[in-house]
Specification:
The protein is an alpha+beta fold. It is about 20% helix and about 30% strand. The protein has a 4-stranded mixed sheet, with no helix packed on it.
């Protein structure tokens, strides 16, 4: 029995040895390159799928203008009495109000008067034609006279009041005088001294 099986086993082993394991197939270089490219694209695709998708920013609402409140006029508008403004002809005028600048151009002929400051400081001098003269003019003139200065001025005829004041040392002086309309050749002078003004004239 063993003699019959042994040749059979031997034949099988020879057959099996002749067949052997099949040889591994070899790949062409093009196939290797295509496989590598396919693998790379697969990795890229997987990476893109794994990345978070960008969330779109919601649009901002454009503010709409708020309508302004509408003005509803009252049913009846109050009526105001007509305002009457004074005109130049209706406004009262006081020709005797001499609290203003003297209008030398309309005050009539003038006469020369010399102002002499005998003090050792600057003097402020105010001359006022305190009642309307023959030409209906009155008002005031102002001067600053330096220390020791002698200044000639021209003033119209009429009743005058002179007032001087000094700040350092403090001193004031005053005098009233009348300058007549008749021509005169006399030297008319206002001499400013300490606490007094001397009028030297006709």
């Amino acid at each position: 029995m063993h003699k019959k099986i042994l040749p059979i086993l031997l034949a099988l082993s020879v057959l099996l040895g002749a067949c052997g394991a099949p040889a591994e197939p070899t790949l062409a270089p093009e196939d290797v390159q295509n496989t590598a490219v396919a693998a790379a694209w697969a990795i890229v695709t997987m990476t893109q799928e794994a990345m978070p998708t960008a969330t779109p920013i919601p649009p901002t609402e454009t503010p709409s203008p708020t309508p302004l409140p509408t003005f509803t006029p009252p049913l009846e508008l109050p009526t105001l009495a007509q305002l009457t403004l004074p005109t130049a002809t209706s406004a009262p005028s006081d020709p005797n109000n001499c609290n203003r600048l003297l209008n030398l151009g309309e005050a009539g002929p003038t006469k020369n008067v010399r102002i002499e400051n005998t003090l050792k400081s600057q003097v402020n001098l105010s001359l006022t034609l305190y009642t309307p003269n023959l030409f209906g003019q009155c008002g005031s003139l102002g001067f600053v006279i330096n220390k020791g200065e002698k200044r000639k001025i021209a003033i119209p005829s009429g009743s005058w009041f002179a007032y001087s004041w000094v700040l350092n040392p403090p001193s004031t002086g005053e005098v009233s005088f009348y300058l007549g309309p008749s021509p005169t050749q006399d030297l008319l002078r206002l001499v400013i001294k300490k606490d007094i003004i001397a009028w030297i004239g006709p």
